[in-house]
Amino acid sequence: MNKNSSNTMALAPNTSNKRETVCIFGTGDFGRALGHKMIQSGYPVVYGSRSTQISNLIPKDAEVLGHAEAAQKAAIIIIAIQRQHYNFLTPLSEVLRGKVLVDISNNLKLNQYPESNAEHLAQLLPGSKVVKAFNTVSAWALQSGTLDASRQVFVCGDDVEAKQMVMNIVRALGLTPLDKGSLLAAQEIENYPLQLFPMWKFPIFLSLGLTAFFFLYCVVLDIIYTYIYEKKDFSFFIAITIPNRVCPVMALILLALVYLPGIFAAIIQLYRGTKYRRFPDWLDKWMLGRKQLGLIALAFASLHAVFTLVTPLRAFASWRTGKGIISQALNNKTEPLNHTNAWLSDSYLALGILGFFLFVLLGITSLPSVSNNVNWREFRFVQSKLGYLALILCTAHTLVYGGKWFLSPSAYKWYLPNIYILSLIVPCAVLVVKFVLIFPCIDKRLTQIRQGWERNPKFSK
Amino acid sequence: MNKNSSNTMALAPNTSNKRETVCIFGTGDFGRALGHKMIQSGYPVVYGSRSTQISNLIPKDAEVLGHAEAAQKAAIIIIAIQRQHYNFLTPLSEVLRGKVLVDISNNLKLNQYPESNAEHLAQLLPGSKVVKAFNTVSAWALQSGTLDASRQVFVCGDDVEAKQMVMNIVRALGLTPLDKGSLLAAQEIENYPLQLFPMWKFPIFLSLGLTAFFFLYCVVLDIIYTYIYEKKDFSFFIAITIPNRVCPVMALILLALVYLPGIFAAIIQLYRGTKYRRFPDWLDKWMLGRKQLGLIALAFASLHAVFTLVTPLRAFASWRTGKGIISQALNNKTEPLNHTNAWLSDSYLALGILGFFLFVLLGITSLPSVSNNVNWREFRFVQSKLGYLALILCTAHTLVYGGKWFLSPSAYKWYLPNIYILSLIVPCAVLVVKFVLIFPCIDKRLTQIRQGWERNPKFSK
Amino acid sequence: MNKNSSNTMALAPNTSNKRETVCIFGTGDFGRALGHKMIQSGYPVVYGSRSTQISNLIPKDAEVLGHAEAAQKAAIIIIAIQRQHYNFLTPLSEVLRGKVLVDISNNLKLNQYPESNAEHLAQLLPGSKVVKAFNTVSAWALQSGTLDASRQVFVCGDDVEAKQMVMNIVRALGLTPLDKGSLLAAQEIENYPLQLFPMWKFPIFLSLGLTAFFFLYCVVLDIIYTYIYEKKDFSFFIAITIPNRVCPVMALILLALVYLPGIFAAIIQLYRGTKYRRFPDWLDKWMLGRKQLGLIALAFASLHAVFTLVTPLRAFASWRTGKGIISQALNNKTEPLNHTNAWLSDSYLALGILGFFLFVLLGITSLPSVSNNVNWREFRFVQSKLGYLALILCTAHTLVYGGKWFLSPSAYKWYLPNIYILSLIVPCAVLVVKFVLIFPCIDKRLTQIRQGWERNPKFSK
């Protein structure tokens, strides 16, 4: 024992030593951080170490003993050593018999070993009760007390009482235990902290790719074409005009891509006449990524909304407005209100606002705390009914806005279609097929297939 | 056993057969879906069925036996048959003695039977431990793996250990069990998946009714009146101008309706001199629907904000601006800045922005995950103090904006008051009565009544 | 027993009396409210009271007995009396032996007594099983059924079975129990309902102070200076123009203050060469308040966004636009598009939009339900990487917008720098130092220190 780090971590609320002693094997970074925190929370801590003189970083209120002596002092032993060194525990199997061993280890990559570290430990020491916990907490966060992120600690283990004891410690440290069931869940728990938005990767790369394509497409048609043929420099379009063309196009396409896999699934089921054969892998993955696609679409739609609202503040916009008014004034006449234009501009704005409103509603419903308070019927009502309504409104918004361009020859610079025409292909296809699918005769057949009990059994042979 | 569906659902992670065998009675849609999912998660599954040859849809790794033999192989039996057929289980009562029976059934309508299906099952088989679970999960979702919605599985039962066993299975299937207590909760759990936003129905119908009324009111005064008396066609007002009149009016009225029941409650308590008599039913229901009313009001307020911000983009708006500027230009003079107008326009915009800001803050606080992290004192501070501040700001916003119209005779077309005057009745009434209620003498009496111990006992006779 | 309040609270769903009897000591406000609610939920309730004739407010279906007789009728006794009167329970210790005592008391101020009320009760009656619960629920909410706020009931206690029994009652009342571990958590649970946003106090006062300062600074420079030297009355700037100067300045400074403590921490660690000494207290507190600072910054940024978007609707803005156009029209010429201006205006708008977008993303990630679904690696990616990107974008937005003023002499009215110059000091300092800290040589050293095991042990003596 030492007094070097005496003035560090003295927050201990001096709780009348009711807590049971906890033993920590290993004096590494995480072992020390956990020990500090436990002492602060009123637990007597004893470290098990090869050398009892080794370290001046161990909290001063902790005892340091040999592994065997330390283990005998506590019912719970935290194994703060790396998996490679688990073998050295086998000679201690007698001392550890009946004790609760807490495996807190993490791996360096996903599925590094065939079985999880905790299961490996349980196999080495079959007489002990292994509980997996604490691996999702960072030592740095424990140390500094700045647990901004999740305070959840996943706990799993085969022995219910052992798990309860560990969960009580977790709570005492100010964290929230989450029971994940038996030790079989350890693999998943060990993989968890290694992930970096695994569900988001494909949707984000897809969006980035499409965005880059449409951005270049617009640069070519709006800036380079204009520069070559009209000798006008509109390079500043890169900042707002072009993003505000790409964003709505991306939002509409991604929103349609959310509903496209459902269409494919329905067609496959109708064709096969059964729901009991698995969908192709790509369709499964696509369906699992719909929420992410939808949220990215919402992000693009929000950017589009703000880029549009900002228009009147642009120097270009006020210059253009001024030019129009001055030319009227110089011609000494006021043009009357064009009622068709007024109808068109108000309609596409209103359609866009309502579509965006429903879209935001869908986004709010997908917040975890909201969707947990909603049952299946309600969730499907919102995501399916309101979702299709949003898609219809957004498609109509684009049609009304871009309609005049589709027929005008100036929309086909270099024989390339306008970006708005491109953006309408997927959503229109989805809406048309969906319209066919809800025809009573087809819908009835599909409902039968999905209810499973009235299907055509020929196909499943 | 059969191999027909061999290539379907082969995701099983080949977990070293540690899981205990689970028996499923019934080979219907949900029974099969659950069996597939359990086999994928490493559970040996045995089906109990009348005919062991019946089905080629049963997962190939599952055994199919008669009911009694199947039941003997497992400690947990999932009853995937409909309530009407529960009676056939009574002859098996000896085999099922001491087993955990999981009732997964649902009804077709709310409170279909006097007692819940699970309680009915427990009465039929008093020797078994009945646990209610899985009824909130859809077979389609289990099958396709696309559990976008809630992963929560409500579990209830009188035997704690049986419940723990079922909750472990729930966790192993990648779902989140939520302990709802004893079997008495089964009725509520069975009703849950049948609901479609029960709390939202009245507020939504009320809003739709009021919206329709105000919309027609505006159409009559703004379009028909103008068309008849001024021969001007403003039919395009339907798209944006009129919605942007109806939305703020609805938002203000609904926000006031959130605070009106509290005013009524206070008056009733003051009049009765006690808090120990129940409020009338309509007031109780109204108070329970305040959150929904408030959120719908927020939706209207958001639409109003976007409709307003979009104004400069309208063809009508730029035509009107241009007309004004050109007429000045043709008259060869620049009008000086009208300071009163500048003050008025900036004030109502600022009041509206601040009111909307507080309103959004209230909305965020009502998100389940946020309100769970807030104690009573904090919740009341936000919802009551900040809520009234939002109401005051929004009322002031409307007063400053519409003030000039109230006195002008042109506001009373066909002797009907302007819509803004109508919208101010409820909020002003709420604010005036609230102002009276916070007078110290009245407030003190009310506080005494609500603290309960210093009330006037005469009335409760 | 009495029948006076017979028609009050008759919602009881007539559940077939399966529930175990619950005893309530004390007929005060909360005791009565809880009793009503329990009877509604199907629990037989017996009150223990000094006088069995005392009250006509007790629910009619409840029995009222002396304390000892009442306690004998139930396994669970709810102690609805104040801590000062706990002593009178000691004579009953024999009757209460083995019973579950539920402590529901609250204190009037934080840490009023050295030990929590529940621990005090457990010391007085060592033979009973004390469970802390229900103290976070308000009697008024129980009575009126309007549980808008949190339905969470914190439960703690040393006996697991006793805790389970209490949690079942909590669930039966329609509330959500949250196990907080052993009785040591009682202090925290008793302090919880007394708090009013403790983490928000300092950030809010800091923001209010800074806002007041910048507001006055702008009033002096923009209104008073202009009035004195240019004889122009711009007092209406108070409503929108000045708030829209103060809000972005506050947002930028507060966002920088979120990242400043991390910079300080890195410097301190580099200087000390260890992470094992505690940071100074002010830095610890600052780090714990970063989330709140960031959310307030987001609020200011949102207000700035709306104030900016509203600009074209202001009477002042349309007057200024008109003046500019008319002066061009009267001079009979149209000014060509100024490409530099178009680039500048579009750039700062685009930078601001993207910065704000990332800022909102950070805000959404800090919602409890979202951050609980995110692991440490993901949380740090969002809050650190995306956060710095937002800071860079917002700083660039301000630089591009305000850049022209920094060099112009008119920016230094009364020798005071323009508010935009002031606002850039902290963010630029943060970004410059951060840029130095990510130099490979320094970053490597810092990473070593934070991983703990490769540090320089000289310093920790």
UniProtKB/TrEMBL annotation, chains A, B, C:
Membrane topology qualifier: Multi-pass membrane protein
One Pfam family in the UniProt entry: Ferric_reduct
Family from the record: Belongs to the STEAP family.
GO MF assignments: cupric reductase (NADH) activity; ferric-chelate reductase (NADPH) activity; metal ion binding
TM spans (from-to): 204-229, 249-271, 292-310, 347-365, 386-407, 419-442
Keywords for the protein's UniProt record, in alphabetical order: Copper, Endosome, FAD, Flavoprotein, Ion transport, Iron, Iron transport, Membrane, Metal-binding, Oxidoreductase, Transmembrane, Transmembrane helix, Transport
Reaction(s) catalysed by this chain's protein: 2 Fe(2+) + NADP(+) + H(+) = 2 Fe(3+) + NADPH; 2 Cu(+) + NADP(+) + H(+) = 2 Cu(2+) + NADPH
Gene Ontology BP, a term: iron ion transport
Domain Ferric oxidoreductase: 249-391
Gene: Steap4
Record's subcellular location: Endosome membrane
InterPro entries according to UniProt: Fe3_Rdtase_TM_dom (IPR013130), NAD(P)-bd_dom_sf (IPR036291), P5C_Rdtase_cat_N (IPR028939), STEAP_metalloreductase (IPR051267)
Ranges for domain Pyrroline-5-carboxylate reductase catalytic N-terminal: 21-107
GO cellular component, one term: endosome membrane
Cofactors that this protein relies on: FAD; heme b
Keyword Transmembrane in record: yes
Coiled-coil parts of chain: none
Organism of derivation: Melospiza melodia (Song sparrow)
Identification of the protein by name: STEA4 Metalloreductase
